[in-house]
Amino acid sequence: MKKNSEPHEVARYFFQTLLQSQVQVCWGLFTDHSQKEFVQWTMKDIYQQNPKAAQAAKLGPPEVKLMFETNNLDLVLRFWRRFVRQSQAAQFARYGYFSTLSIQGKTATVEAHLVFPNGQEQRVNLIMVNERGDWRLGYLESNMPF
């Protein structure tokens, strides 16, 4: 993704790369808020599933965040498979047309207009936030399912 991309280009790119299993790219396209919440959810899940191992490894937010950044296999199984299913990424990537509706300071609203082969349509607004000089998907800020 090139620098200074438009918000709708980043949103489309997110779903396309997610379907291509480029999850470390997707991770970098989440807002800081979404990343922080996903780290907390994943850490809680790890401690519930394997409390002794998690405690022995002294896993905390920095370690779990590093697992996301390095495309850790456990996270591919634990987080990303569920995320792809819950987010309906395939529908967004295959049937979505993305356009920027508004930009107000560091926040933008992108409309994903899904047009299905059977003629049905669905419109979903996505919140994008400009952080560290790039637009990022506010997945949880958009109240998307997880």
Explain this structure.
By secondary structure, the chain is of the alpha+beta class. Helix content is 52%, strand content 23%. It has seven helices and four strands, in the order αααααααββββ. The protein has a four-stranded antiparallel sheet. A hairpin with a 5-residue loop joins β2 and β3. The radius of gyration is 16 Å and the shape is globular. The two termini are 25 Å apart.
Distance between the termini: 25 Å
Mean pLDDT: 93
What structural class results from the helix and strand content? alpha+beta
| Oligomeric state of the chains present here | single chain
- Assign a percent range to the helix content: 40-55%
Which helices and strands, and how do they pair?
Blueprint: H1 7-19, H2 23-29, H3 32-49, H4 51-57, H5 61-69, H6 73-87, H7 89-95, E1 96-104, E2 107-115, E3 121-131, E4 134-138
Antiparallel strand pairs: 1-2, 2-3, 3-4
Helix pairs in contact: 1-2, 1-7, 3-4, 3-5
What's this, in brief?
The protein is an alpha+beta fold and 146 residues long. It has helices at 7-19, 23-29, 32-49, 51-57, 61-69, 73-87, 89-95, and strands spanning 96-104, 107-115, 121-131, 134-138.
Describe the structure using short key phrases.
4 strands; 52% helix; 4-stranded antiparallel β-sheet; 7 helices; 146 residues
